Amino acid sequence: MTFKSMRERLLASSMICGAAILGLSATQAVAQEGTVSEVVVTGSRIPQPNLTSASPVTVVGAEDVQTRGVTRTEDLVNQLPQVFAAQGSSYANGATGTATVDLRGLGPNRTLVLVDGRRLQAGTPAAGAGNTAPDLNFIPSALIERVELVTGGASAVYGADAVAGVVNFIMQKDFEGVRLDLQYSGFQHKNDSRVQDVIRARQAGALDPTQFPIPEEDVWDGGTTDLNLVIGANTADGRGNVTAYVGYRNVQAVTQDQRDYSACALGNNPTGPHGFSCGGSGTTAPAQFIPGGGSESALTLDPTAPGAFRAYSSARDAYNFAPSNYYQRPDERYVLGAFAHYELNERAEVYTQLMFMDDHTVAQIAPSGIFGQNININCNDNPYLSASMADALCNAGIDQLPDDPNRPETLGPNSDADLDPNNGQQASVAILRRNVEGGGRQADLRHTAYRGVVGLRGDLGDGWHDVYGQLYGVVTYQQVYLNEFALSRVLKANDVVVDPQTGQPACRSAVPLLAGSNADPNCRPYNVFALGGPSAESLAYVQTPGFQNGEYAQTVVSGTVTGDLGQYGVKTPWTEEGIGVALGTEYRREKLDLNTDVAFQTGDLLGQGGATLPSQGSYDLYELFGEARIPLVTDMPFFHSLSAELGYRWSDYSLGFSTSTYKVAGDWAPVEDIRFRASFNRAVRAPNIVELFSTSNVVLNGTTDPCAGATPTFTQEQCARTGVTAAQYTHVAANVAEQYNGLTGGNPDLDPEKSDTVSVGTVITPTFLPGFSLSVDWYNIQVEKRIGQIGQDVTLERCALTGDPFFCDLIQRAPGTGSLWLSNNGYIIDTTFNTGKLEVEGVDVEATYRMDFADYSAFSALENYGGLSFNFQGSYLKDYLVTTLPGDTPFDCAGQYGNVCTGSAVPAAAPMPEWRHKARLTWRSPWDLEISGTWRHISEIAVDNPDYVGPDSKLKAMDYFDLAGTWGVRENVTLRFGVNNIFDKDPPLVTQSNCPSGPCSGNTYPSTYDALGRYLFVGARMDF
């Protein structure tokens, strides 16, 4: 067989999958061509007679790119009901700068991403990324021919990580000519939300009403420019092709103050407008001071009496951190690449793929500051303290620090004989002061990725073919973190005295006579006691950038041989089709190297929630694999076809373990119109480098402390189990921002996860209704020895309610205060290890139909008006069971969201509705005009805390309607246009108590819901 015929097979595969999108069944597509007998589809390496995969395969075609106005590949896959939102453009707090895909809500690490059947390299080496999932930004959406999803374990075919399934991006590779594609898109929204009542109520009682702005009524923003050029040419002898592409994308930022429902951080207030309140952070400007370690003693500056304190009030003084957060990150991306192949002779062909990306984005969140750090305030010689201030801070009943033997006992204006008892002493005061003068914290993120594939395909004769390939992928990463405070400088800048030579306030470290070994002549005093704020000089001193850089490299060498044993008579007596086999071997190496500067390593950057440490690691593995497709019966009564599929893969890791994965599948069509399929897949996921080798450190990782505040949720007895003393009970400071410390990090002793996927389904393609197909598939996925975290909130609850030493020993409260956030001495151990179990069960439904008006007499009046195409994809999530540790009773997150079901206790970073669907109807006119309408539905979701009562106890069901069209203006010019979320629906809103940082932003889940309003796009494609 020549490579021309092999290319015909691939072309047929493309045609058949595209036909499925338009409503044709696979068998009908083959019959219409009549010349093609074998195709290759994702889910197996063996050529098959038609599109009859025993495992469910969902296909997304280029038409979906057109009708959605997609410029980001993440938006193309996130529309599918089987996909849950993960890292993407809406992430600001916790953003890695990447976009990832999450099948079944099992986490991006458990979804294997392929490009033309080959593994895509990791997306980032960034510390804290939590995963090494590939970055979808790397894939140019303009070159996507189709996307094939196998939803279920596929490790026997493609290797580790395919626990939830495989997403395979098939790229255009045989283009000829020149194509210029350009598009502009953006958002339009009318701000008329009822939340405006909440904002106005907060304005009325706020110390600074300007912190709570109401945006303009009509806004246009988030503009995106996308330009792509594709050039393809065949070789002069017709034996090869080169397809090259270059693309540019520019995305404009949207901040949360541009939408009324995200302009303030919402809290639960039964007496407030619509049950909401505008909350905020206790890190404020002017500062909040906690001299006694308990929130009831908190103070702030009195604006009516300079030089005096008054009691801090959250309702009046809390800082609105929402406005400056990015709802959509700005992004600038360049892509460049080429696909080429050349037929050396009738039996050999070489091929290559070269891909490049440079992506630059900025993640911005609220300004940094001093976040409750205990700072030593000199009590008697601080020129910024009035006598009443000094008395409030230094005589608050807290322990005084001992005298500093390295400084004189007397200093400054109070250095005469009648010394205050506090002279020469310091008081430890928790200070919370927001850096409103410096602007938002910005993570300037850049990823530069390269991918090269070189391979050889050969025809060995007698029906045997081999494929050999070598893949190298690398991503380099750079981060510059801006507008941060350095703790080491803050401590110096707050140790203020009067310079005896100038008589002016100065840092003790900048006064030569007093500095000693702590000298820092650059220090400028940072005045936290002034209503007007600190000086520009002091701000320049305490602010410092942080730097990270790293690289993740992947090398793959693989070889595969496929053949048909039928030529040797290896077949069953009931069919003429022989047994197809595929045998192969693969070598893969993964390597990570992350470097951070001293500021990150020491935890000196106050707004980071902890240190970011360097990490390095690598591993490699060798694999052997094989597959067999066994036709059992064909063309017999009640057995139009019956076949089985077998697969096995053995993997040997340099980490000290080996794994075995396998699959068993069957396919039975009693008649041509109906087919039944079933499969069992054993899949594995080996721990990735981040999970193995990331260095442990204390970071902000939890969302609750039920023992904090004046009225704790837990009883004194329950809190005592978590380490709270009787004296501390009702005096532990609560974090208004609901962020608490956890000790996180990797674990080199992790074992691989194991998962079993069972799938049973049916496919109906009735001959009496040409153009119609329906598939219904039940699935069950169970993941054992899950690699993950218990979750800080779960640990606290288990300890308090049960007193189990396993959980209670993980809690380390700060001495004295009992806090889990005021210092790094208070935290909960939440490192990575093999925990419990995940089980996901549900049903997928897909239906397609295509008809021409001329084919039906009932539509004879419309026979000159083209036809209709219909596509429906729905997914029902019956169970999402999480077993924290072996022996625990599982809890079910299906249909729920919140701190447990969208927090660190589960891998999903998105709400999990029980039902989602997408239905599209397309009118195909005879005038090169197509109009498509799409209905997207997300079912109602309840909060995961059954005792919670609030306006966000349930998030209402959402229905979005989209309209799009394409028009062939000329033979070589096609326009496209469309609007998504036609009715500009506001997203469902959640309070901060149910809003984990990262997936939840702007009081909603913007990767799940249309958070920015009505999306409009217009584009053109020109072929030359």
Written overview of the protein:
The chain has a domain at 288-320 and 369-406 and 422-437 and 491-500 and 509-545. Helix content is 11%, strand content 43%. It is built from 16 helices and 50 strands. The longest helix has 20 residues, at 3-22. The protein is globular and about 100 Å long. It comes from Phenylobacterium koreense.
In short:
This protein has 1024 residues and is mainly β.
Q: How does the SSE layout of this entry go?
A:
Layout: H1 3-22, H2 26-33, E1 57-61, H3 62-68, H4 73-78, E2 83-84, E3 102-103, E4 111-115, E5 118-119, E6 144-151, H5 155-158, E7 165-171, E8 177-190, H6 195-205, E9 218-234, E10 240-251, E11 254-255, E12 266-268, E13 276-278, E14 288-290, E15 299-301, E16 309-311, H7 314-317, E17 326-328, E18 331-345, E19 348-367, E20 369-378, H8 387-394, E21 426-434, E22 440-461, E23 464-485, H9 487-493, E24 496-498, E25 505-507, H10 512-515, H11 536-542, E26 543-564, E27 580-596, H12 598-601, E28 615-636, E29 639-653, E30 658-671, E31 674-685, H13 689-693, E32 697-702, H14 716-721, E33 740-744, E34 753-764, E35 772-784, E36 787-788, H15 792-802, H16 805-808, E37 811-812, E38 827-829, E39 833-834, E40 837-852, E41 867-883, E42 891-892, E43 896-897, E44 915-924, E45 929-938, E46 941-943, E47 954-955, E48 958-970, E49 973-980, E50 1014-1023
Parallel strand pairs: 4-7, 33-38, 43-46
Antiparallel strand pairs: 1-6, 2-3, 4-5, 6-7, 8-9, 8-50, 9-10, 10-18, 11-17, 12-13, 14-15, 14-21, 15-16, 18-19, 19-22, 20-21, 22-23, 23-26, 24-25, 26-27, 27-28, 28-29, 29-30, 30-31, 31-34, 32-33, 34-35, 35-40, 36-39, 37-38, 40-41, 41-42, 41-44, 44-45, 45-48, 46-47, 48-49, 49-50
Helix pairs in contact: 1-2
Family: Belongs to the TonB-dependent receptor family.
Pfam family, one: TonB_dep_Rec_b-barrel
Domain TonB-dependent receptor plug: 52-166
